[in-house]
C-alpha cells in the first residue's frame, strides 16, 4: 500500500478467526471517519473457522458483488483454487471493505487487481464530485489506439461509414430502458398490503406439556379424562372443576378449559388398568390464561402480515405459508445469443479462422449468478435470414433476448436491420462510453432486445450496466 499510495496512513491488526471479534474490530474501524478502506486477509475459504465473509456481510450497507467477481475472475487466471475463495466486498458508512485471501501470493495478486480502482471507489463513496468527474473525463477521453474492425467495409457510401443512431449518454440510455421495460409487480407493495385471512393460532393452544383445566377449580387431586395431542379436534364436552385433560404442546384446549398447568408442577397419583393416567396431583393454584396462547395471539384476521419487510425470502415465504398463502412471481424468460460466423462451441475442434465462443458461457453464468434462468442459448452465423428467423422464433418463447456481437458498423452486422424488419423500435444504437459504444436496446410490445458488443470485456460491462438492472 505504501509503495502504491503516497501519504497514506496504514494501520493493521491481527484478529482470531472468531466472527464476533472480527465484527468488533471492523465496527471500530468503520466508526473512524479517516479510514476509507479496510482490507481483510484470510478467513475466506471453506474451512469451519473461515468466517470473515459472514462477519463482514452483516456490517455492509451496500454489497459490491462486481468488485468481488472481478477479483475472482482475475485470480482464476493464476490458479483454479481461486474459485474456493468466498471473499465479499461492500460499503459500510464511508468505508470500503474488501476481503482478500490468506496467502501472501494471493494477496499481492488481488491487490494489484484492484489497485487502480481503489482511489476512484473512495472518491465515489466520499462523494468527492470534482475527483469523480476528473476520472470520468479521463475514461471517456480519446483511446490510446484506434479500433480495428475485422469485418469488411460496405460499398463505401456515407450510410456504411456513419451510424444513423445518435450517440446517447449512459444516464439517458438507462432512463430509456427503465421507462420502456414494463415494471414487474411491486412485490414489496403487495406484501406490505397483505392482510391475514386467518387467526394464528386459529384456536386456544397449549404452550407447554401439562394438564388443561378450569382456573375456578383448585390445586390438589384431579381426574384425568384423557389426552389431547396436537392436531386433535377441540373437545366440547362438559368439564368439571375436579377434572382435567393431559395435553401436549401446541394442542387445542377443551372449550371449557382456560388454563394449563405444566407437567413439572404435577404429580402422578394413579394409573388405570390400561396403564393410562387417571389421577394427578396439581401442586400449583390454577390461573386463567396460564400457559395458553389465545386465538390470534401471533396474528389476527385482517392484521397486516408484514408490518415491515424482512429482506430474507425465507422469512417472507414462511410467513405466507403460515396463513395458507402462496405468492407466485415468475421470473423473466431470457435467451442468450452470440453472433459471428467465426465462433465455435468450446466443445468443438478448433479450425483455422475460427475462435471459441466464450460470451454465451459468460452471459449464461452471469444470469445464473444473479438468480435468473436462461431458457435458450445458440450461436448464429452472420446471415440476415438465419438471424431473422432465430429472433422471430425466440420471441415466441421468451421476454428478453440478450445478444453479443453483430451490433457494430461492419457489413456483416445484421442485427439492427433485422430488428427494424421485425418492427422493433430501436431506442438506442450507440452509447457514449468505452467499452460498450455499440450497445443496442430495442423493444416491441412486451419483448425486449439487448445487443451487447462482441468483445467479451465490453459484453461483461454492458450486461451489468444495462441488461441486469
TrEMBL record:
Record domain MoaB/Mog: where: 2-121, 335-468
Cellular component, GO annotation: cytosol; dendrite; postsynaptic specialization membrane
Renumbered residue ranges of the record's region Disordered: 137-161
Keywords: Magnesium, Metal-binding, Molybdenum, Molybdenum cofactor biosynthesis, Transferase
Gene3D superfamilies: MoaB/Mog-like domain, Molybdopterin biosynthesis moea protein, domain 2, Molybdopterin biosynthesis moea protein, domain 3
GO molecular function: ATP binding; metal ion binding; molybdopterin adenylyltransferase activity; molybdopterin molybdotransferase activity
InterPro entries the UniProt entry points to: MoaB/Mog-like_dom_sf, MoaB/Mog_dom, MoCF_biosynth_CS, MoeA-like, MoeA_linker/N, MoeA_linker/N_sf
Record's catalysed reaction(s): molybdopterin + ATP + H(+) = adenylyl-molybdopterin + diphosphate; adenylyl-molybdopterin + molybdate = Mo-molybdopterin + AMP + H(+)
Listed pathway(s): Cofactor biosynthesis; molybdopterin biosynthesis
Obligatory cofactor(s): Mg(2+)
Pfam family, one: MoeA_N
Residue stretches spanning the membrane: none
UniProt-listed GO biological process terms: establishment of synaptic specificity at neuromuscular junction; gamma-aminobutyric acid receptor clustering; glycine receptor clustering; Mo-molybdopterin cofactor biosynthetic process; postsynaptic neurotransmitter receptor diffusion trapping
Function: Catalyzes two steps in the biosynthesis of the molybdenum cofactor. In the first step, molybdopterin is adenylated. Subsequently, molybdate is inserted into adenylated molybdopterin and AMP is released.
Database matches in NCBIfam families: molyb_syn (TIGR00177)
Family from the record: In the N-terminal section; belongs to the MoaB/Mog family. In the C-terminal section; belongs to the MoeA family.
Protein name: Cinnamon
Organism: Drosophila orena
Gene name, Swiss-Prot/TrEMBL: cin
Amino acid at each position: 500500500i505504501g509503495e502504491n499510495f503516497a501519504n497514506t496512513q496504514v494501520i493493521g491488526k491481527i484478529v482470531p478467526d472468531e466472527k464476533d471479534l472480527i465484527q468488533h474490530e471492523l465496527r471500530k474501524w468503520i466508526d473512524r471517519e479517516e479510514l476509507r478502506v479496510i482490507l481483510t486477509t484470510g478467513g475466506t475459504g471453506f474451512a469451519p473457522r473461515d468466517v470473515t465473509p459472514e462477519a463482514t456481510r452483516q456490517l455492509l450497507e451496500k454489497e459490491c458483488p462486481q468488485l468481488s467477481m472481478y477479483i475472482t475472475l482475475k485470480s482464476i487466471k493464476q490458479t483454479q483454487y481461486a474459485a474456493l475463495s468466498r471473499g465479499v466486498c461492500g460499503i459500510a458508512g464511508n468505508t470500503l471493505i474488501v476481503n482478500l485471501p490468506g496467502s501472501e501470493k494471493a494477496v499481492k495478486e488481488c491487490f494489484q487487481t484492484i489497485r487502480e480502482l481503489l482511489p476512484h471507489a473512495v472518491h465515489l463513496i466520499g462523494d468527492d464530485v470534482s475527483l469523480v468527474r476528473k476520472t470520468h473525463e479521463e475514461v471517456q477521453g480519446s483511446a490510446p489506439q484506434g479500433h480495428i474492425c475485422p469485418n469488411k467495409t460496405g460499398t463505401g457510401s456515407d450510410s456504411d461509414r456513419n451510424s444513423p443512431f445518435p450517440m446517447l449518454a449512459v444516464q439517458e440510455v438507462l432512463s430509456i430502458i427503465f421507462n420502456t421495460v414494463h415494471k414487474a409487480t411491486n412485490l414489496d407493495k403487495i406484501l406490505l398490503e397483505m392482510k391475514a385471512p386467518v387467526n394464528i393460532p386459529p384456536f386456544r393452544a397449549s404452550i407447554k406439556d401439562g394438564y388443561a383445566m378450569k382456573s375456578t377449580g383448585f390445586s390438589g387431586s384431579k381426574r384425568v379424562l384423557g389426552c389431547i395431542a396436537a392436531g386433535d379436534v377441540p373437545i366440547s364436552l362438559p368439564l368439571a372443576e375436579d377434572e382435567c385433560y393431559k395435553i401436549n404442546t401446541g394442542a387445542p384446549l377443551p372449550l371449557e378449559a382456560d388454563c394449563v398447568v405444566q407437567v413439572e408442577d404435577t404429580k402422578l397419583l394413579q394409573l388405570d388398568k390400561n396403564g393410562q393416567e387417571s389421577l394427578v396431583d396439581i401442586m400449583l393454584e390454577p390461573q386463567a390464561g396460564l400457559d395458553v396462547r389465545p386465538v390470534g395471539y401471533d396474528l389476527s384476521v385482517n392484521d397486516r402480515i408484514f408490518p415491515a419487510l424482512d429482506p430474507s425470502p425465507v422469512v417472507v415465504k414462511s410467513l405466507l405459508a403460515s396463513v395458507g398463502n402462496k405468492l407466485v412471481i415468475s421470473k423473466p424468460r431470457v435467451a442468450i445469443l452470440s453472433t459471428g460466423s467465426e465462433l465455435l462451441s468450446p466443445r468443438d475442434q478448433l479450425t483455422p479462422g475460427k475462435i471459441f465462443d466464450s460470451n454465451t458461457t459468460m452471459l449464461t453464468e452471469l444470469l445464473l449468478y444473479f438468480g435468473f434462468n436462461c431458457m435458450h442459448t445458440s450461436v448464429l452465423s452472420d446471415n440476415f435470414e438465419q438471424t431473422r428467423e432465430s429472433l422471430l422464433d425466440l420471441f415466441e418463447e421468451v421476454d428478453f433476448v440478450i445478444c453479443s456481437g453483430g451490433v457494430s458498423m461492419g457489413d456483416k452486422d445484421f442485427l439492427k436491420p433485422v430488428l427494424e424488419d421485425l418492427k422493433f423500435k430501436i431506442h438506442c444504437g450507440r452509447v457514449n462510453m468505452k467499452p460498450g459504444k455499440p450497445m443496442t436496446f430495442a423493444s416491441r410490445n412486451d419483448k425486449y432486445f439487448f445487443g451487447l458488443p462482441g468483445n467479451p470485456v465490453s459484453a461483461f460491462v454492458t450486461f451489468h450496466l444495462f441488461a441486469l438492472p
